[in-house]
Amino acid sequence: MADDANITLDELDLSILSHLHSDGRKSFSDIARELDVAVNTIRNRVNKMANDGIITFITRISPEKVGFQAYANILIAAESDKVDSITEELLTYPEVSFISLVMGQFDILLDVMCYDNQHLSNLIMERIRKIPGVKRTETMMIIKVLRWDTPDIMTNKEHWENMKNPLNNS
């Protein structure tokens, strides 16, 4: 994997990413035709971005279609010397779809998906709160997901253009 500081994306890379973002199953042939470049160029660029860790290919499942009905964000305040061991434990929980360290009154933020409210309650009361070092939690139930996506890469196009030419700060 390339060093993040040395990764640069040009207009073609950003266009390829935009196409894949809108339709991850779009063929390299279709992308090449729409961008007026050779199929091998698209294949090589995608492979390089994958090797550099810029993109990964996953299948996104609609959670509610497979029985997950209770989504929540859980904030965790932890004893400072236990944050690492708490996150290691949380990383093993299959309900956790996102985990990050945060600053402020809390130390850890989780996104979880559970089958129902009882499953969510058990997760919090019987598992998370019993992890050594967890001081308190705050849960925000998600009642309706309006958008579940990643930002369009083209919104960050100016950043990548400036990375290619750091003196271009106009």
How does this model look, in words?
It is elongated and about 55 Å long. The chain folds into two domains: 4-59, Winged helix-like DNA-binding domain superfamily/Winged helix DNA-binding domain (Arc Repressor Mutant, subunit A), CATH 1.10.10; 63-142, Lrp/AsnC effector binding domain/regulation of amino acid metabolism (RAM) domain (Alpha-Beta Plaits), CATH 3.30.70. α2 (28-35) packs across α3. The model is unreliable at 166-170 (pLDDT under 50). A hairpin with a 6-residue loop joins β2 (96-101) and β3. The chain has 170 residues and is an alpha+beta fold. The longest helix has 13 residues, at 39-51. The chain has six helices and four strands; from the N terminus they run αααβαββαβα. A four-stranded antiparallel sheet has the order 2-3-1-4. The protein is 35% helix and 18% strand.
